[in-house]
Write a structure and sequence with these properties.
single chain, mainly alpha, 3 helices, 0% strand, elongated
Length: 130
């Protein structure tokens, strides 16, 4: 149990880091795009003006941001695939356990019997029709 919790907690922290990296990289790319899109729009009629196009080092930085976003998404995908495999394995183990011991499945399903509820054992008493 402790190992499962530790793994889950580690995955959650890792997920948060990936989401943060995706968010920050995407935000930088969006701001870059909006900035130079606005400049291009303003200089559309008069043609490209000096300063209306990005510098090569700015483009290189956006390409690095994009690569970071891509890498974070790839790692996040691996985390999700690992979780899905683990869930499938646990489901398979449960099915095998229940196949080997059908009484275990029956006892799990009958634990809630007799606890009352809407259709519980003490139903509404009916009065005779007079």
């Amino acid at each position: 149990m402790h190992m499962k919790f530790t793994l889950f907690f580690t995955i959650q922290l890792t997920d948060n880091l990936y989401f943060f990296q995706i968010s920050e990289g995407s935000k930088a790319i969006l701001e870059f795009s909006n900035h130079y899109s606005q400049r291009a729009h303003n200089s559309q009629r008069s043609g490209p003006l000096p300063g209306s196009t990005p510098h090569l080092n700015d483009i290189d930085e956006m390409m690095r941001q994009n690569a970071c976003v891509y890498e974070s998404l790839s790692r996040l995908k691996e985390v999700v695939l690992t979780q899905q495999r683990a869930l499938a394995q646990r489901s398979k183990e449960r099915q095998e356990k229940n196949f080997m011991n059908p009484a275990a499945e029956f006892s799990e399903n009958t634990n809630s019997v007799g606890k009352g509820g809407f259709a519980g054992p003490e139903g509404k008493k009916r009065r005779p029709v007079s």
